[in-house]
Q: What sequence folds into this?
């Protein structure tokens, strides 16, 4: 029993060390890795690449700040207008600031928006209140075995409203409960378009409340098309309800009114590991995907056709000096946090290669030297030695903090 | 069945690199009372700790009721009454609580001697041990051991903090109790005069060795102290083999030895050492202990 | 025998345990007075909104309290045992030493569990009064590791208190100082969902760690 209790202590110590020692290491020696900012220029018809204060075009020519602004006029419209150098027309299209503004859109989705502790109750706004300002309703809804409205004042279910909405959903063929519920649950939006929802059969619905009555629209799509993530947007052009990511990692956009699902010609997207940014302007869409040490940008025209692609990668943390030194010291790292989700867990990362094995063997030897003067029976230390061999510095510290000293 | 209740074989122990003792052998017969004497730091409490399994000796082993003291079974532990040095007890309890606590562990629990002792204490029923005087606490601790009715009593410095009169009473009680019930006692004390009335056998320890191990009577009979005055104060006999301890102030000698008067006189004669006022001193146990271990 | 040991442990910790439960109770009550106050001032729908979408934690106040209580119980239970090495008295009792230690530690864990459960139930009850299942569930997922961390803290501090050698006491403190924060990482509400089970298992495992320092104590390490 005493021996077991010691190994339990050694185990939790290894766990604690493999979380905090690498963390201390990176805090002390880690350097920031600068990622790139890349956009498609409607002037060059090519990409402009910024890294920190440095900007170049895709051929490697250095650009001054003003040159950069001129290459990306739609993004820097106000500055250029202030300088009096905003062009009257680009590519034969007259530049009307209002039109430019309407076409401008920005969308961002991160892995943690897909996997993590996500909201499961939402406020359903009145879409046509006849008032300019949106008001946060007094109830929140959930879609479990039915659509339920919970009054926030009394924390009780509004039966009448729940029945009314549930009945309409039922009639439209909704299979309870909901899988995904996406909306913009804030009053700080131009108007309310309700929620885009998938049911347990992966059917797609649009649910709104108009003048207190349910508005439910089933979106036509093939049965094979299933979505794992939906994010509603509030763009000024009012052409779209939401961006959506299918189970096959394709990017779709859902148009307003005619409920058309438009697929972007993007391949190899990994929504669980990559950040997605979509810049839209009067000419193009920039579909930017940012991974751990790479960027991939697709420029689309307004017909959603791919017109250019840029990709680049840079050395990751592991390939830099501090990463190499790390690989000689630590056989692995456990993190409580992940860059890909808000969920806390033990995220285990084995150090690539076997550089650490040298150090581990040295530590096994060092441990041998430590216990040698004690004239112990080495058989009783076999597990300790194996732990040091496998877990290296973590095991070495742990087995020595808890003395392996037992009597017959 | 082996008649030794305690049997220690070749005990050797170190604290770090400091030797406490080497190859110590102790046997305590059933029904006998052994007193372990020694100066502070000679290893008395170390021995007690080994006996109770609270210390693993470097080598050697102790058997208590035939069981290795490092792995005493619950039954054997129940047969041993253990008084920790300083009468340590759970001081956050009062006398009722502590009796209630211990009584459930021992089948032979007999609370008569305990309440007997408690009735003499001037304590309130809800008074915590921690607020009692040293003497009161020691009586609680002793009372609990008596109530346990163990076959072997291991008492580490039981007389500490007791009033002289009560000490005497307790020793007489203890001896009577042990002898009439055939109990075995292993005890240490630093008040040696008490021990004379109590113990049958004596074990005297010095730093890292045993000075004497025998029945008290034998020890008192064979250990002698002589005083005399040297005519020539420069003569040094402290290196002689038979000398256990010698105190010399100018020409006045106090000689401690296991040899007889005749032997010493013979030696002086043979070595041509002339002395005056040769006297054999009447020793009690405490004198003999000091004679044996030295004053320092 | 275990009844008697529990009696002794109870004598040591009873006032402390009652005070701790009351303290936790007061904190929880205060939390919900605060909730009520907030609802009155900013309206329930706005409050729900910040809880659901901005992950505000109405229960954040009690975060470290279970840990402090766990540490306190460990101290109340084991410091009286190491004063004058009194635990020798318990080891000398006619029972298996490990069983005695397990009984003591089991009592400590159960009394902590009792204290935490009472407060936890009050918390869940009051949460249910103000909030829907989804918010309450997320709150439970979030505060659970704080309570389990209290149990883990109890086990490790017991280990530290009973360890006979000061040097190793220090080492164990370092280990505890690195390990316990695992239970108190500041994740958003509900973030601990995938790890709570593992954290519970680990807390259960280390509840027997006391045997290790008890063994060292018994074998006269110094």
A:
């Amino acid at each position: 029993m005493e021996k077991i209790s010691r190994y339990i202590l050694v185990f939790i110590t290894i766990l604690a060390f493999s979380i905090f020692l690498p963390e201390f290491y990176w805090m002390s020696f880690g350097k920031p890795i600068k990622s790139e900012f890349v956009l498609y220029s409607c002037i060059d018809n090519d990409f402009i690449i910024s890294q920190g204060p440095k900007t170049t075009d895709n051929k490697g020519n250095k650009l001054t700040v003003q040159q950069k602004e001129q290459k990306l006029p739609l993004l820097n419209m106000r500055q250029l207008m202030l300088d009096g150098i905003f062009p009257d027309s680009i590519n034969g299209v007259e530049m009307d600031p209002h039109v430019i503004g309407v076409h401008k859109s920005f969308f961002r989705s991160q892995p943690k928006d897909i996997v993590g502790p996500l909201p499961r109750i939402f406020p359903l706004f009145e879409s046509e209140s006849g008032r300019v300002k949106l008001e946060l309703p007094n109830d929140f809804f959930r879609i479990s075995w039915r659509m339920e409205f919970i009054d926030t004042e009394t924390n009780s279910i509004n039966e009448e409203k729940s029945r009314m909405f549930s009945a309409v959903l039922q009639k439209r063929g909704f299979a309870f409960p909901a899988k995904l519920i996406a909306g913009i649950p804030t009053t700080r939006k131009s108007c309310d378009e309700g929620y885009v929802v998938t049911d347990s059969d992966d059917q797609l619905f649009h649910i709104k409340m108009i003048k207190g009555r349910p508005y439910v629209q089933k979106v036509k799509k093939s049965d094979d098309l299933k979505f794992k993530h939906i994010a509603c947007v509030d763009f000024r052009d009012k052409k779209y309800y939401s961006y959506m990511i299918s189970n096959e990692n394709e990017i779709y956009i859902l148009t307003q009114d005619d409920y058309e699902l438009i697929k972007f010609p993007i391949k190899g997207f990994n929504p669980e590991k990559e950040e997605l940014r979509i810049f839209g302007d009067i000419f193009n869409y920039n579909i930017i995907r940012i991974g751990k040490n790479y960027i991939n940008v697709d420029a689309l025209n307004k017909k959603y056709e791919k017109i250019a692609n840029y990709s680049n990668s840079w050395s990751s943390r592991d390939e830099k000096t501090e990463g190499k030194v790390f690989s000689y010291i630590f056989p692995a790292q456990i993190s409580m946090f992940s860059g890909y989700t808000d969920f806390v867990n033990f995220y285990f990362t084995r150090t690539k290669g076997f550089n650490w094995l040298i150090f581990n063997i040295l530590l096994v030897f060092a441990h041998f030297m430590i216990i040698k003067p004690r004239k112990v029976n080495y058989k009783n230390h076999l597990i300790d030695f194996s732990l040091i061999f496998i877990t290296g510095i973590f095991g070495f510290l742990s087995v020595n903090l808890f003395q392996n000293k037992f009597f017959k | 069945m082996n008649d030794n209740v305690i049997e220690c074989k070749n005990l050797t122990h170190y604290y770090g690199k400091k030797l406490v003792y080497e190859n110590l052998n102790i046997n305590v017969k059933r029904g006998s009372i052994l007193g372990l004497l020694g100066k502070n730091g000679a290893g008395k409490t170390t021995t007690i700790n080994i006996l109770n399994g609270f210390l693993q000796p470097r080598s050697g082993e102790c058997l208590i009721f035939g069981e290795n003291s490092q792995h005493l079974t619950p039954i054997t532990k129940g047969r041993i009454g253990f008084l920790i040095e300083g009468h340590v007890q759970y001081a956050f309890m009062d006398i009722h609580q502590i009796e209630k606590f211990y009584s459930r562990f021992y089948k032979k629990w007999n609370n008569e001697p305990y309440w007997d002792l408690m009735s003499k204490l001037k304590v309130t029923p809800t008074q915590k041990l921690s607020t009692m005087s040293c003497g009161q606490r020691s009586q609680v601790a002793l009372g609990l051991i008596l109530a346990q009715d163990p076959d072997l009593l291991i008492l580490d410095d039981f007389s500490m903090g007791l009033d002289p009169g009560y000490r005497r009473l307790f020793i007489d009680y203890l001896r009577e109790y042990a002898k009439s019930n055939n109990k075995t006692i292993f005890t240490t004390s630093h008040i040696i005069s008490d021990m004379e009335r109590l113990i049958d056998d004596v074990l005297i320890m010095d730093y890292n060795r045993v000075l004497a191990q025998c029945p008290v009577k034998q020890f008192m009979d064979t250990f002698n102290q002589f005083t005399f005055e040297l005519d020539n104060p420069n003569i040094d006999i402290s290196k002689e083999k038979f000398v256990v301890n010698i105190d010399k102030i100018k020409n006045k000698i106090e000689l401690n030895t296991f040899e007889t008067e005749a032997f010493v006189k013979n030696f002086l004669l043979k070595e041509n050492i002339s002395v005056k006022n040769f006297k054999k001193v009447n020793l009690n146990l405490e004198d003999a202990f000091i004679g044996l271990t030295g004053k320092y | 025998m275990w009844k008697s040991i529990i009696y002794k442990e109870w004598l040591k910790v009873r006032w402390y345990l009652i005070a701790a439960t009351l303290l936790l109770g007061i904190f929880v009550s205060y939390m919900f007075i605060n909730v009520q106050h907030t609802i009155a001032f900013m309206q329930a729908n706005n409050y729900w909104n910040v809880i659901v979408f901005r992950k505000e934690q109405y229960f954040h106040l009690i975060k470290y309290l279970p840990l402090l209580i766990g540490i306190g119980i460990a101290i109340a239970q084991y410091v009286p045992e190491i004063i004058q090495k009194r635990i020798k008295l318990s080891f000398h009792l006619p029972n298996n030493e490990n069983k005695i230690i397990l009984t003591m530690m089991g009592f400590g864990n159960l009394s902590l569990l009792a204290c935490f459960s009472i407060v936890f139930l009050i918390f869940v009850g009051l949460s249910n009064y103000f909030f829907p299942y989804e918010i309450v569930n997320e709150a439970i997922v979030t505060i659970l590791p704080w309570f389990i961390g209290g149990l883990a803290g109890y086990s490790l501090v017991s280990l530290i208190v009973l360890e006979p050698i000061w040097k190793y006491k220090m080492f164990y403190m370092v280990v505890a100082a690195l390990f316990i924060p695992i239970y108190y990482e500041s994740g958003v509400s509900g973030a601990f969902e995938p790890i709570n089970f593992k954290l519970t298992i680990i807390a259960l495992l280390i509840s027997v760690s006391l045997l290790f320092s008890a063994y060292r104590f018994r074998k006269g390490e110094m």
About this structure: Chain A touches chain C through 47 residues (CB under 8 Å). The mean pLDDT of chain A is 93.
